[in-house]
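Inverse folding, one chain.
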């Protein structure tokens, strides 16, 4: 897994750019709305604390059997960052997540990014993809559905596991 790394992924409107520490100042603004954290938990990071977080993420997982893949989402037409997508790849499955800043929500950005991420992962020989979605977060459930994931009966920390098998 350690050989797998994030690469630039382009969609019709978006560029998924591998996360860099230099993205922290702009992303702190993107993720600054406290309402954004209703379902994802926590509170907005300061640019300094987000920089420290991005330093840890870009250093990679300390477990060589786990790959941490992180991207920022750039909306090409506006030349601005709008959110993130991520994948934690293990031998058994790959967990994905997404977050789009409040000003860009409702424009299909998360769904487009998640679909393209799942397609890219499929080409990386990933066998299955899972995501955890709070049962009250209908917009995030729609993103999971648009990426081809389906809800399961499995619950983790109060969230529903969604899954999609990509290959046997």
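Residues assigned per position:
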């Amino acid at each position: 897994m350690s050989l797998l790394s994030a690469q630039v992924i382009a969609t019709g409107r978006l560029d998924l750019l591998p996360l860099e520490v230099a993205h922290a100042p702009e992303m702190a603004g993107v993720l600054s709305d406290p309402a954004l954290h209703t379902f994802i938990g926590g509170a907005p990071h300061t640019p300094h604390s987000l920089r420290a977080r991005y330093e840890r993420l870009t250093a990679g997982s300390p477990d060589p059997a786990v790959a941490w893949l992180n991207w920022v989402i750039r909306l090409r037409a506006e030349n601005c960052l709008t959110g993130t997508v991520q994948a934690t790849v293990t031998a058994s499955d790959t967990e994905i997540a997404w977050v789009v800043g409040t000003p860009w929500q409702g424009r299909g950005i998360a769904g487009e990014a998640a679909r393209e991420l799942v397609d890219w992962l499929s080409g990386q020989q990933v066998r299955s993809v899972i995501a955890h979605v709070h049962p009250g977060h209908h917009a995030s459930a729609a993103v999971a559905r648009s990426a081809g994931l389906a809800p399961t009966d499995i619950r983790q920390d109060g969230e529903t596991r969604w899954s999609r098998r990509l290959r046997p």
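The mean pLDDT is 95. The longest strand covers residues 80-89.
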